[in-house]
Design goal:
Chain A is mainly α. Helices cover 84% and strands 0% of the residues of chain A. In chain A, helix 3 crosses helix 4. Chain B is an alpha+beta fold and 162 residues long. The chains are: A mainly alpha (202), B alpha+beta (162).
Chain lengths: 202, 162
């Protein structure tokens, strides 16, 4: 029964990522794009994927991973997320520098650009703070990381939904809903654990 | 020293006055003469190439880019004006010279150029148009298609003397 549930959870995650990936790979738009642009677009999709995996890992929702291993993998996925983001932004820059400069300066005519740029800065801020999290102390780090994570999820999801790109609309909406649900669940779980732990700590 | 009292009335009156001043300042040259000049759109000049050749058609065509060119003030149609057009299409990306071409307005100030089908790029299906011949002030437009399935797009210019 336990293994059946574990298999189901991993299969659901594989489907949640695999279906949108396959549909994006079948997008007709790809035939009119250069290699760098295609890579940049998929790097953005990978960022969205990792945004789903991150809260699942840290909340211990993925069976077969101990809390310790989940945490370790969360750190590595965080680094991978920054790398994918760099490829996304760098690849789009190479594809059309003026459009990317407009986006980064928040003067782009496209409404989704600013959401993506805000999420980008929040991701970079988390990555930077993560390097100094011991010096920050657990409380300051938690408050900073959770607030920035909220900005990342909101900005990233709105950015993705407003873009008319290679992702198929329904699978994109479903994935974005899962990203939001996983983030909300992880934060709610953390707050509940803190509340239970609080009386003992005092 | 002036003491600013901000209540609902002063904010409404002050804001309204400031708004009216701003709007009339913007619209003043147009009000005096009638038709207001078209401002350039954000991102309109992106991937612009100066001096794209006048062509009968861009690539194999299949998509119609059309519009009008009029003079600010009296709104008179401007004939023989050169309009440059470029977009990311099924035949090429925005920055490629083969995606660029220009056409001239007819005696009614209308222009119409067949280009390959526009496809979404950087998240939006859109085209680019420019007036840059110097006689009037340069204007860059970036119209967005309501749907990527559309096979035509319009953009209209009202030009003011340079």
């Amino acid at each position: 029964m336990k293994t059946a549930k574990a298999t189901l959870i991993w299969a659901a995650l594989a489907a949640a990522l695999g279906v949108p990936l396959a549909l994006a790979a079948a997008s007709p738009l790809l035939q009119w794009r250069g290699a760098v642009y295609i890579v940049a677009g998929f790097a953005g999709i990978i960022v969205l994927f990792l945004m789903l995996v991150q809260p699942l890992l840290i909340a211990g929702d993925l069976p077969g991973l101990s809390a310790y291993r989940g945490r370790r993998i969360h750190h590595w996925i965080g680094a991978a997320l920054v790398a994918a983001l760099a490829i996304h932004v760098g690849g789009l820059w190479i594809t059309s520098p003026p459009d990317m400069i407009d986006a980064l300066l928040l003067r782009s005519p496209t409404p989704f650009s600013a959401w993506g740029v805000v999420a980008m800065w929040a991701i970079l801020a988390v990555a930077l703070l993560a390097l100094f999290r011991r010096r920050l102390g657990p409380r300051a780090w938690r408050v900073a990381h959770l607030s920035l994570a909220a900005v990342i999820v909101a900005g990233g999801v709105v950015h993705a939904m407003l873009v008319e790109g290679t992702m198929e609309t329904v699978s994109k909406l479903a994935l974005c809903a899962l990203v939001v649900a996983a983030a909300v669940k992880a934060v709610a779980g953390l707050l509940a654990r803190r509340r239970r732990a609080a009386p003992r700590a005092r | 020293m002036t003491i600013l009292v901000l209540n609902r009335r002063s904010v409404l009156v002050g804001g309204g006055a400031a708004f009216a001043t701003g709007v009339s300042a913007l619209a003043l040259p147009a009000c005096a003469q009638g038709v207001a000049p078209t401002p350039s759109m954000p991102g309109g000049a992106n991937n612009y190439i100066k001096g794209a050749p006048t062509v009968a058609r861009i690539g194999k065509g299949g998509f119609w880019m059309s519009g009008t060119v009029r003079r600010a003030g009296d709104g008179a149609p401007l004939a023989g004006q050169r309009i440059q057009i470029w977009a990311h299409t099924v035949e090429g990306q925005e920055h490629e010279p083969k995606s660029h071409g220009a056409t001239l307005t007819d005696k009614n100030g209308a222009f119409r150029l067949e280009i390959p089908q526009i496809v979404p790029v950087f998240g939006q299906p859109h085209g680019h148009l420019a007036y840059d011949s110097g006689e009037f002030k340069t204007v860059f437009l970036r119209p967005v298609m309501r749907s990527a399935k559309q096979t035509s797009l319009e953009a209209h210019f009202v030009l003011q003397p340079a």
